[in-house]
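Chapter review: from sequence to fold.
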Amino acid sequence: MRILSNTKDGLKRCYNVLISKEELEVAADAKLQEAAKKAKLDGFRPGKVPVDIVKRMYGSGIVSESKEEAIKNAAKQVIKDERLMVMLSHSVKVVRDDEEGLEFAMQLEVNPVFELKDLSGIELKKYVVNIGDEYVSDELARLRKIAKKWIEGEETDEVKDGCKVVIDLITAKLNKKKKSKEIKDVEIVVKETIDEYELSQATFQISKSLIGAKVSDVRIFNMTGSPNSVECKACVKKIFNPSEHQLDDDFAKDIGFKTLEEVKEVVKSNNAKRCEGIAKGIMRRDLLDKISDMYDFPIPEGLIQVETKEVIRQISEEARKIGKKFTPQIEEECSKIAEKRVRLGFVIAEIAKKENIIVSSPEITEAIRSIANMYPGKEETIWDTYTRREALPVVIGPILEKKVVDFLLEKIKISEEVACSYEKLIEIDEEPFDFFKDDVAAVSDESTDTATVAEDAATSADEGENENRSEESVEVEAEAAEDKKTPDAE
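The C-alpha cell string follows.
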C-alpha cells in the first residue's frame, strides 16, 4: 500500500491510495484459506475442502469481500501513519482496479487544532433568591389544596366528581366458567373525565359508573376493552367529601410532620436548595457562553450537520408540543446553536485533557442506569443500546461537560451577587431557550412547580388511601388483558 497523492482544504483531507496487485492476492488467498476451513461439502470432512474447489465455487464473492477488507485496513493504516485525529468515519471510492492494483480515494475531516485561552478574566453573576415568609405562606396554601381532608357524608349524599368512595367489588369474566372474585373495601377517588384521571383505564371505568350512586346502592357494569368483557358489581359502602385543612399542627401531622413550623422549615429549605441549583445552572450556561465567545476556529462540517439535525429535532418537538410552527428562521437559529455546541465540545475536551478530568466507569454505569429508568419495561434494551461503543459518547459527553464546568466554576471569579425573586430566576433560566416566547412561558409555568418533601408527603396521603384501589383495579385490568392474549376458545 502506498499513498499516491493527498490534498488539503481546511480540515478536509483527500488521499489517493494504491493497494498493489500482490497485496490483493495475498488478502484473497488468506480469505480463501479461511473459507476452506469453514466450508461444508458432501464428500469432504468439515474443514478439509480443498482451496481450489472453494475458489471455483465461491471465488468471485470471496475476492470481492477480500478487496473490501483490504480497502478498510489500508484506510486505517493511512489514518495511523499520517497521525490524523478524526471523529467522523471516512468515505472511500474506488478509482480504478486494474493490473497495477486497486486505487481508492479516501475523504475525511480532521479535528481542529487550537490553543486554549486564559479564562482568568471571566467574571460571572450569581443570582440569589431569598425565600421569605410570603413565599412560604403561598406554598403552604398550595399544599393545603393538595392534601385533602375527607369528611364522611350523609346517607343521602350522592357520589360526585372529586369525592372518595369505599366499595365492595365483585368481578366475573363473561363467557368464562370461572368463579367470581370479591374484593372488599376498595377506595376510589372519583373522576368524571379521563383527561383528568391519572390512574388506570379500569379504575376510571369503575369510577365513572359510580357517579350519582348513594350509600348501599349497587351498580352493575361491564369492563370494556377486551373481547371477553369483565362484569363488575360495585356496592357503595361509604362516601367521603373533600375538605381543606386548617393550617395547623393537625395538618402537619396528616402530611407526615410533627408541627406546622417543621413543614415551614422543610418548604423553605427545599426551595432554597432548588433555587441554588437553578442559579448554579445559570452560571454554568453563562460560563459556557463566555468560553464559546472566545473561540472561532474552524470545525468539521460533517459534525455541524449531525448536530444541526439533533437540534432541529429537539426544537421541532417543542414546537409540536405547544402547537407552534417551526419556521425557516428558527431552523437557521438551530444551525447556529449546533455550530456553537460542536466548537464548545472540542474546547471542553481539550480542557479535560489538560486538567486530567475523566469520566469513570461507575459514572457511565450510573448515567446509563438513569436513562434506562426513564423507560420502564425497556431497561434491558436501553442498556444494550447505550453500552455499545458507538453510543458511549452520547453518555460520556454531558458528564464530562458538567465535570469540566464545575472544575472551572471553582476558579472563576464571581463579580456580584444579584438578589431576585423566584419568578425572575425562572425567567432568567428559561430566557435562552425562548423560541416561542409566550407559549414556552406558559408551558414552563406548568412544569416548574416547586417540588418539595412536604408536597410529596401531602400527595402521598391520597396515594396511600388509594393503594388498595390501584392494586385491585390492576387485577381487573389484568383479567381484561389476559382475554386479549387468549380469546375464548368457545
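Two observations follow directly from the output. Residues 438-490 have pLDDT under 50 and may be disordered. The first helix runs from residue 21 to 38.
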